[in-house]
Amino acid sequence: MALAVLSALGFSFKAIFVKQAYVVAPVEPVILLSLRMLYSLPFFLMISLPALQNIKTLSLRELFLLVCIGIAGYYGASILDFIGLQYISAGLERIILFSYPILTIILGVFFLGHRFDKRLLVPMGLCTFGVVCACISDIQVGNNESHIWLGIMLVTGSAICYAFYQAFSEPMIERLGAKAFSILAMLVSVIAVELHFFSQLPLSDLKQPPEIYVQCAMMAIFSTVLPVFFQSSAIKYIGAARAVLVSTIGPALTLVFGWLILGEAITLLQVSGMLLVLVGVLTIKSKRT
């Protein structure tokens, strides 16, 4: 249980680190993402490199699918999320992202031939209504409605990318194994991130204030590497169902720390939206297991 809580705490702090970096300096989102990837990659390589020795030759179709999944899951979702955090609160960002199971179900029905379970209509409706409540809360509190809507659309796009990653990764995990798939997808995303960086900015832009390096290093270690391994260990000891249950404290933690550290407002409408999303997500996961 302690490992599961630490994992949820680490993931919930990602948005806090990003928002703090934006306060320190007017840094481009792709710079933050590039530094995060570069700091995280050595840890994943050291742990997961042995798993790559068992990879069989991939067909062109499988290689194409792997590239698409890697770009969507670790690059697309992250860059849209980082850009969106320039415009909306960390609490709203976490609530929108946490509702990704709805999108995963929709993608599975339309593109993978999955059967839709009518029992999921109510929890999906709860999640949708909860996200709408949280969005309205940010709009009421914020000063620039057009920017908030832009942030909402960007983070929703991030959730769609992550849902794509979740929906299409299952056959590749069966083919390669979880560790090998994860590290290959991350390698694809690192290449995508660096191509994005070099196509948009000069190498000299990686020179940033020391506080930016600190924020990105903490984001890489405490909100990327350690939570992944804490989560895996938690599942080993208490099982996936309990680990998922504990992970639902993530949005609440982001709301609280966004208030304590960033000075973001917490409204009754936002809390209500968060609770609706949590109930909907837990019901969806219980119906699917």
UniProtKB/TrEMBL annotation:
Keyword set includes Cell membrane: yes
Membrane topology: Multi-pass membrane protein
Membrane-traversing stretches: 31-52, 64-89, 95-113, 120-141, 147-168, 180-200, 212-230, 242-262, 268-284
GO-annotated cellular components: plasma membrane
EamA domain residues: 2-133, 150-284
Keywords assigned by UniProt, alphabetized: Cell membrane, Membrane, Transmembrane, Transmembrane helix
Classification via Pfam families: EamA
Origin: domain of life: Bacteria
SUPFAM superfamilies named in the record: Multidrug resistance efflux transporter EmrE
Entry's localization field: Cell membrane
Protein name: EamA domain-containing protein
